[in-house]
Every structure is written in structure tokens, then in C-alpha cells.
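User: Predict the complex.
Assistant: Input components as received:
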Amino acid sequence: MADFGYKIQEDRQINYDSNDRTLFYFLKRVEPSISLCIGCGTCSATCTVGQFTQFDLHKIMLYVRRGEKVHIANEIKKCMLCGKCSLVCPKGINTRNIIFQTRKFLHSNK
Amino acid sequence: MSYNPFVLPFSIGLVIVIILILWKYFRWVFSHEKAEQKKIVKLIFSFKIFSVIKEIFMEVLLHRRIFKINPVLGYMHSSFAFGWFLLILGGTVESKLHSHHAFNMFYEPIFFKFFSHNINGFPFANGFKFLMDLILLYILSGLVLAMVKRLYKRMFGMKKTTKLRLVDKLALTSLWCIFPLRLLAESLTSAQYHNGGFLTDNFGNILAAILPVNQLEYPAWWAYSIALGVFFVMLPYSRYMHIPTEMVLIILRKAGFKTEKKYTGFSRVEVQSCSRCGVCLDACQVYSATQRNKMLPAYFLQSVRFNKKGKQGLTDCLMCGRCQEVCPVGIGVNAIRRVKRNEVFDEKGAEFEYLKDSDSKTKKADVIYFAGCMTHLTPTIKKSMVNLFQKADVNYWFMDEDASVCCGRPLQVLGKEKDANILADKNRELINNSGATLLVTSCPICYKIFKEEYNLNIKIQHHTEYLNELVNSGKLKPVNLNFSAVYHDPCDLGRGSGIYSQPRELLSKISITNKLENEKEMALCCGSSLANLPAGFDDKELMAIKAAEELCKSNPDYLITACPLCKKTFVQACNERKIGKNVKVKDIAEMLAEAVM
Ligand code: SF4
Ligand code: SF4
Ligand code: SF4
Ligand code: SF4
């Protein structure tokens, strides 16, 4: 099919009742600073991996809150844990620990 | 042969402890490969063995390094170790002279006064009486200090002492009982037979005036023997295991053993050599800032030894190495922590497939410049470097100018060695393809992994070393800006890589440097180390403020460092918190760029 640069959007309805938010609750317990995220996107702007792929931490933070684990599992593996994002975050969120803990959680709750 | 049933607790305890210790020695050594075991044999039959014996004498018995840290603490430790050693030595010689035999039962020197009421009529009999009492007094003085230490730590230059486990408490109690009980038993005997020296004789006479000495004598000897027996049985399970272990540590270390990528028998020796003296407690900034204590070597090594699962002690540490620097036993805590982190966390967690598709264009150049992730957060540093490269007319290639791949150390310090290696492979490929002969980096974190893990066959320099060479060779000609400065040693550059002189030399050419309370090996950590995962923003800010306050005490014009992460941290601490009136924070490269305007 010819690629015109447009495509049909997937259904983006979010159903909080059916979504599985266990990951978010887990993270809130092990790294409470996650609740402070204002979705500003500074982390994504500085991200080392962002120069190579569409990897986007601020989007992941959003998915985590919404309980959309499917979107996270593969994306989160791309992070190099370099720590730049936690240094620039205006809310002082320990993003590096969030990523680390998310991986651990997804690894043991496949 | 003299015998009495009361020697049994002592004798049984001694046999048990000897068997257990030998079993441990055996396991430690034979868990290593044959080739490594040969190193020990080689050491024993070389001249180096004399220096080993000397070190064992100086450290295990006299505790020279603890003396250096605090004389009173050193006296306390040595009075137990050296005093007890002398007591055994003196007792053995005395009892052998007395019995005119080279061989007597092993317990006779220990209970000499009980078995030998008439101790005159052999050479130096009176001298021995005096000497043995003097040694006992020496140990008792140390014991008094140990008791006082539990109450008044400050006198020993320590803010905190270690908390004890139950086995340690039992062992400690029995140890503390041994020498007062010996004094009591010998005095009670001396009160009846006058075979004691100045201490036991006089004390015995006092006791005789108020107590029925002939009834108490026998139970006292029993108690003394039981205290010894209990201590011996507890020893292998308590912190006192450090006494027989430290000797092995000294021997193996001299033979070239090291903890590297695996938890070996030698690592076990290191872990069990910790006397939990507590010297490391005051060195740790995480502890002093947050009061969390699980990461302190005194506790962390114990949790490793007893296989505790506690992960907090494992991860809540900056790996700054300050504790390791002060440890009188010289235990390589950082290496052990790294090995343990690998054991726990090194499952494959990352997916770096996308790096395969990324273009790997390299530029042929003489010098590669690798700024590092953190330097991209402090862009003036990389601008200054580019500026200096151009001024010195160097044919360089800015390797991570656009798309940078992390050096891998942030993963490595978290125990994710496998993931780190993938990144390292990518960078190595780029570096090797460029044909350069020198790699310069601005970040001590990258510098350390380049040097230690990358196995590159080109020269690697941190920019402090490189710029210093450029200035020395006249390629850069800075003017002296005559400002006052303090220099902060970044952990990975100073303690981590031993680079102390180059930045100081460079700085002396452009400024007047003030002395600091803690510098070089004892330099503070800025608190932002990537090795500490759980420490959040607040913790790091607390550590940074404390460090900045100390650095700015002399109120210099500039606080100079050589690490983008330290710089970023201190900029926040100094500027936003207004620490040090108008102290400006700069990297040494930025300063030099100003000076060669
Ligand atoms: S920078 Fe911090 S606050 Fe902003 S989106 Fe990222 S995590 Fe959230
Ligand atoms: S730690 Fe991960 S998400 Fe954060 S900047 Fe580095 S690569 Fe990006
Ligand atoms: S690690 Fe070293 S300094 Fe710390 S308690 Fe053990 S022996 Fe003492
Ligand atoms: S390495 Fe640093 S942070 Fe870790 S325990 Fe030692 S002094 Fe504390």
C-alpha cells in the first residue's frame, strides 16, 4: 500500500475500570515520587535513547498511570539507565528507579 | 601431669574453635583454582614472607592503622590482641621453665597459678610474676576503655559505634569476663599461697580480708575456664572471627588475590575480616545525611556474610569509596558490592536492537573527544573543550556530538553488566574505526569504564590530564587569572582512578587554590552518584548541601571540579541554596578556556 504518511488511528479510549493498574500501585509503593509527575516532557527531551528511536519516557509515565502495560513492556527495555532524565526532571522524580523497578516488575509478572 | 576437671570447658572450646577455623581456612583456599593456590606457596617460600609477618604483627596484634586513626581506640584494640598474645607467650615460657620440660599440657600455661603453688626456684621466677601481672593490667586497662567506649563514643573520635547481634553480644560478654575472672581466680589463689605478683598478690590480700577465699577459689577457676570456652565456641560465628581471618587476608592480599568479577573464597576472607570496628560509619555521607544505615560496610558485610536478602544495603550506596579509604583492615567493599549487585540484578533487562540500525559513521582523527551523557547536560563544558581543541590546533573528532551512546557505567554500577557490555561494544567499534591514538573524555564516570572495562588499545585520558599536558607542552598558554579556588575531587576521578595531581597542577597555573578539610582520598562525594538507585532528590540534595557547605567554608571565588555531574549538583546546591556567598561553580575545562582567551 502506498504510504502517504497518514494512517488510521487506533482506538484510544481509556477504560480505567478494566485497565490493570497494579504496576502503578507497585511503583507508588517503591518509588513514591512517581505521583509528582506533571507530564512536562523534559525527560523525553533530554533522553539519550530519544536520539535513536521514538522512545519517550513521559509517554511511558502516562501509560503506567493509565494501566496500559502492553505499551510499556517492550519500550521500557530500550532505556540505557544513563540517568539524565532524573537530573533534569523539574519535580525531582527518581525516574531511573522507576524504570528499573518497572522492568523488575514486568520481568516477574509476565 | 596436672589435671583438674575445670580445664574441660576451656579445652573443649579450644579444640572446637581450632577445628572450625581450620575447616574455614581449607574451604577458602581450596575454592580457588590450582594456579592461584600456587601463588600462596610461592609467597611463603619467598623473601616477601618477612614483610607479611611484619604486617601481621603490626596490624593484627598492634593495630597500627587504628592507632593512626585514633590512638585511644588503637590502644584499646591492641591491648586485647597484643596483650593476650603476650599473656599466652609469657605463660608458656613461664610454665615450661617451671616444669623443666619442653612439653606440658596445653592448658597448663593458662591455669598456671592454679597448678603451681610454689613458683619459685626457676630462672627469672620473680621477673615473670611481675611481668605476667603487668600484662594482665595492660589488658584490663583496655577492657575499661572498651566499656567506656560503649558509653562515651566521642572520646574515641567516633560519632557512632556499631550495633551488635546476639551472638556478638554473647561473645563480647564472655570476652569481657575472661580477664577480670583471671584476675579474680589468680588473686584468690595468691591470697592462700602467695604466688602472685604485685597485682594479684595485693588484690588477693584485700579479698582475703573480706571473703572466704579458700571456698571461692575453685569456683573462680571454673568460671574463668567457662568464659574462655564460651568465647571460643562463639568466635567462628561472631565478629571475632576477624582475628583468625585477618592474618589470612594479609597473606592472600600479598599473594596477589583480589575480588574481581566473582564472589570467591578470597571475598569470603575479606567479608569475615571486618572487625566491625565502626571506623567506616562516620565516613559515609548517605548515613550522615539520611540516618539510613544498612549500606554501611559494618552492616553490609555482615549481611553478605550471613546471606541476608536485604537489598537496601546493596543498592543504597554511592560506591563513593570513602568508607573503603578509612577501613583499617583495607577491605575492598566496593568490589564486593559490585559482585553482589551483579549476582542479584544481572538478568538481561534491556533491548538495544535499535543501535544496530543507527549509523556508525566515524571520522578519521588523531584524538577522539567523548563528552559523555552528563556533559550534554552542562553544555558549557563541551563548548569549552571544543574551544580548547581548536586553540591548540588538534585534529579531533567529537564522537558523541549528536547521537551519543551511553558509556555503560550507569548500568554497570547497578549490576547490569550484560546490558552495559552491549553499549560498550557499540562504542568500542566506533572508537576503533576512527584510527585515533588518544581518547579524551570530560566525564570521570566514562573515564573509569573506558580504562577498566573497554580493553582499548589506545591511550585514554580525562580532560584534566589532557589539558595539563597541552599547557605543559606550550600548546595552550593560559594567563593567571588570580582568583581563589577550591578543587573538588570527583569520586570516580580521584579515589576511583587515582588522578589527583594533574588537576591541581593545572589549576595552580591559573588560580590560587585553598586547602580543604577533606580532599584527595577523603574528598566528599557530591551525592549524585549514579551508583545509588534508591536515593531520591531530597536525599541527594541533603548530601550536596552538606558537601557544598564544607567546600565553600573558605569562601573562595570559585568552586572548581572536573566532572559534569558534580558541577551540575553543586550549581544547584550553591546557587539555589545560596551556599557560600557568590561562589561560582565551574569545571576546570571552562576555567582554562577563560584563561586562554
Ligand atoms: S521530566 Fe519529570 S515531571 Fe516532566 S514528564 Fe518527565 S518525569 Fe514527569
Ligand atoms: S535513563 Fe533512560 S529514559 Fe532517562 S535519559 Fe537515560 S536513556 Fe533516557
Ligand atoms: S569495614 Fe572496615 S572500617 Fe568498617 S567496620 Fe569493618 S573493619 Fe571497620
Ligand atoms: S561507598 Fe560511600 S555511600 Fe557507600 S557505604 Fe561507603 S561511604 Fe557510604
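The mean pLDDT of chain A is 89.
Let me know if you want any component modeled separately.
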